[in-house]
Specification:
This is Competence protein CoiA-like N-terminal domain-containing protein. The protein is an alpha+beta fold and 235 residues long. The protein has six helices and 14 strands. Bound molecules: zinc ion.
Length: 235
């Protein structure tokens, strides 16, 4: 976690500090090393959220952009408790995902947070596997036709589809298949000025979507774009 409660205030970790978990009230120790993002950890590595993912600079940067009052929010539902990465002022949950995640956990998280959630995933590690490709001019065309995914309507002339969808197509080598049944809007952060909003084919070798500027995204959900831009961290 980036923030612990210290004297009832959300405070960032500093060396040697102690705090309380705002979600479970457990004791937290600060973890402040040279190469890790400074964060808080529960004693004995017992995290109160089974979906916990190690903090990264990428996580922290996004959380800070939306402000500590809107980040790391405990949500309780039907006896279960989880920590939403970001809950915007409009009550939209933004789930940040940096590492690979299994299909059942994706579904669990979507069910838990409901329809007012979206995914923001870090594409830094797999962007090298994406390339723009015109399937229709090479042998992939036949292979494509026999696949259950993407939907049949994709198997048409590429120019027509591009016009219709007004989006970008990528060929995704070794796609992260666990995302294939994602049900919520999903944005990929490739570390550029825009996010890629996936419109189809997530988790398959043909992915389609449009670019949305980060400025527009952040402003729409009540974040601080100036903060985001000024604090881009050199990873
Ligand atoms: Zn806790």
């Amino acid at each position: 976690m980036i923030w612990a409660l210290v004297n009832n205030e959300k405070i960032e970790a500093t060396p040697g500090a102690r705090g309380t978990c705002p979600i479970c009230n457990g004791k937290l120790l600060s973890k402040c090393g040279a190469v890790i993002v400074w964060h808080w950890a529960h004693f004995k590595d017992e995290n109160c959220d089974s979906w916990y993912e190690p903090e990264s600079f990428w996580h922290k940067h996004w959380k800070m952009t939306f402000g500590k009052e809107n980040a790391e929010i405990g949500i309780e539902k039907e006896g279960k408790r989880h920590i939403a990465d970001i809950r915007t002022v409009q009550n939209v949950i933004i789930e940040l995902q940096n590492s690979p995640i299994s299909m059942p956990v994706i579904k669990e998280r979507e069910d838990f947070y409901g329809e007012r959630m979206l995914w923001l995933i870090n594409g830094e590690d797999f962007k090298k596997n994406l390339s723009v490709k015109d399937y229709w001019e090479d042998e992939d065309y036949l292979e494509l036709k026999s696949l259950p995914r993407p939907p049949v309507r994709w198997v048409r002339r590429s120019e027509e589809i591009k016009k219709e969808a007004n989006g970008e197509f990528f060929y995704w080598k070794s796609p992260r298949k666990s995302w294939a049944n994602v049900q919520r809007h999903l944005f990929i952060d490739f570390g550029e000025d825009s996010l890629f909003l996936v419109q189809g084919g997530m988790g398959t070798s043909q992915i389609r979507g449009v670019y949305i500027s980060k400025e527009k995204f952040i402003r729409k959900y009540g974040g601080d774009y100036e903060y985001y831009r000024q604090n881009l961290i050199d990873k």
